[in-house]
Amino acid sequence: YFMAVNDEKIAPLGSQDRRKNGSFYPPYISIAGNFPPASCIFSEVMNLAAFVGFIIAVLRYLQLKNRIDKPWLNFCCLVTFSIGCFGMTLVGNYQIFNKMTIHNAGTFMTFGLGTVFCWMQSYITLRVNLNNEGRNAGIIRFLLSGCITICMILYFSFMPQGFHVQATQCQWAMVMFFLIFLSTFAIEFRHSRFDAVCTHCGHPEPVRESL
What top-level branch of life does the organism fall under (predicted)? Predict the structure, then answer.
């Protein structure tokens, strides 16, 4: 964002200024990451975010695997956010002005499925109630899920009407709420330990002696 503003590709967030020749674009996240060199950083950040998000989804799935009474719901959360993470890679690697269809599909996968994931995890948090912290964590997640949903509704309401300043503010706020939501998993993760075990399943090799 700061690089795109410095290069005069987008208008500052919250600014009504536009150049007469139209060289200033609204500060949508996708447009801020459309032009190099900002596009290079944007792609790298989105790929890393997709990887980290997928790891969080897997760890959360493993944490709830033997504790939830509805295994299918836990599995749906994993699949939903995994597809959303794949959408992040599409958003980062296919710039909106170059491949708009693929970019918009990735945006729908990221924000749409990401919102569904947030609501499902909020419900699961109250349902499982790990270490008797589910109520407090669940309330926080329900509030964040509501904020994300409201921002999304406002974003899709403002954008077709040409209220780009308000739409971009809702978009940036929605992303911040997403990041805060994911950070709340630290509440439960601090009670769990994840170990990676490597075992050799083949036949033991014969011992050879040399004279």
Answer: Eukaryota
